[in-house]
Amino acid sequence: MRRRGLLHAELNRVIAAMGHTDTLVIGDVGLPVPPGVRCIDLAVLPGTPSFAAVFDAVYAELAVESATVAREIHGRNDALMALSDRLRADGIGVEEVSHDDFKHLCARAVAVVRTGETSPYANVILHAGVTF
């Protein structure tokens, strides 16, 4: 049993198996999961677990090269705007696309991690980097 860090066994396996440029989606409770894409459903109650808690746990484990968010976050989700700023401050590029394009990009993901988050557009695609 792990003593700290990300404890979810399936999510740990997915992250450990990811290669350079593979993508992992962390999404709110309403984000549709494309057919054929693995869904790691963590949602328990509305708001639980939060997007922020899941993002922080994954970000601590995954080498992230870049990220993609929906441009609709502007004026609608200040928390995700702050997260985008945090990623940029860490030297990680953040691409903004339309929400429709975002949903299409999810079809290429290794997995979609479904949180209990209920705030609008609380979704991110993390593009795996390398550790060397």
What does this 3D model show about the protein?
By secondary structure, the chain is α/β, with parallel strands linked by helices. The protein has a single domain, classed as 3-Layer(aba) Sandwich (RbsD-like fold), CATH 3.40.1650. The protein contains four helices and six strands; from the N terminus they run αββαβαβαββ. It has a six-stranded mixed beta sheet. α3 (78-89) links the parallel β3 and β4. The N and C termini lie far apart (28 Å).
What attributes does this structure have?
single chain; 4 helices; 23% strand; 132 residues; RbsD-like fold; alpha/beta; globular
Give a brief rundown of this model.
With 132 residues, the chain is α/β, with parallel strands linked by helices. It has one domain: RbsD-like domain (RbsD-like fold), CATH 3.40.1650.10. Helix content is 28%, strand content 23%.
Task: Describe the SSE topology.
Elements (H helix, E strand, L loop, with lengths): L8 H9 L5 E5 L10 E4 L9 H9 L4 E7 L7 H12 L3 E5 L1 H7 L5 E4 L9 E5 L4
Parallel strand pairs: 1-5, 2-5, 3-4
Antiparallel strand pairs: 1-6, 3-6
Q: What topology, given as strand order, has the largest sheet? A: 2-5-1-6-3-4
Which structural class do the helices and strands define?
alpha/beta
> Rounded to an integer, what's the Rg over CA atoms?
14 Å
The number of domains is 1
Bin the strand percentage.
15-25%
Largest sheet data: 6 strands, mixed
CATH class reads Alpha Beta
The rounded distance between the terminal residues' Cα atoms is: 28 Å
Helix content: 25-40%
Number of helices: 4
Low-confidence spans: none
Record field, number of beta strands: 6
Average residue pLDDT: 97
CATH topology group: RbsD-like fold
User: What string, H for helix and E for strand, traces the elements in order?
Assistant: HEEHEHEHEE
CATH architectural category: 3-Layer(aba) Sandwich
**Shape assignment:** globular
CATH superfamily: RbsD-like domain
